[in-house]
Amino acid sequence: IRVGVNEGSIDRTRYPEATPEALVASAMDHIRILEELDFRDVVVSLKAFDVPKTIRAYMLMAEQTDYPLHIGITEAGLPWSGTIRSAVGLGALLAMGIGDTLRVSLAADPVEEVRVGIEILKSLNLRSGGYTLIVCPSCGRCEIDLIGTARRVDEALRMRPLPPREVKVAVMGCVVNGPGESREADVGLTGGDGLGLIMRSGQVVRKVPEERMVEALLEELDKIEADLRS
In the beta sheet, which residues pair with residue 229? Predict the structure, then answer.
């Protein structure tokens, strides 16, 4: 049974303000009812819109009980702001070792919630697998349509079957820092002055016109995945 408490569900006659301490006390009230019935197969959730309040509540609960904690920031909002709130709140908790399961709550397609949750876990090295897209920030040295190119690559990666292990894909906008910054990627492209360098494990393997960069990158990705599955 999940004992779920949020700001709107606590008993305001007992806890006039939805403080972190009140959220924890309310959850413990319900846990004690279950324990009195000799039921301990419990997971606990304490959610609020306020990120610092949520973090504090989970920290307090982690000090008081060993029950698994289902973490989340409730009513986080639309995808852009909600992703930031969720990443800050959940990331802080997970970095402290708090949290056994998680939920990203966005006013969006549930698939987007799952994608954000996976990226949060991957950012903390708590999950591996799939594709990781590495993109440099646009700057004055950028010589290609970096944002458009990165979006095309991202869309193509979403449509591909998941590889047997994590595959890092880099998209870099200039030849000054691009080759070095993409060295840790399995495959990448670095654009410059109408040309694109296609790299595998830090080594240049092809030089193609800018209009063929994405196509050439995906061709190299096909080769990598064939090697992984062989």
Answer: none
User: 157-200, pLDDT tens digit by residue?
Assistant: 988 888 888 899 999 887 767 777 777 889 998 887 788 889 88
Beta bridge partners of 15: none
Q: In the listed set 97, 123, 149, which residue is the last one of a domain according to the structure? A: 123
Those residues whose C-beta lies under 8 Å from the C-beta of residue 86, and which sit 6 or more positions away, are 72, 73, 76, 104, 105, 106, 116, 117, 120
CATH at residue 139: 3.30.413.10
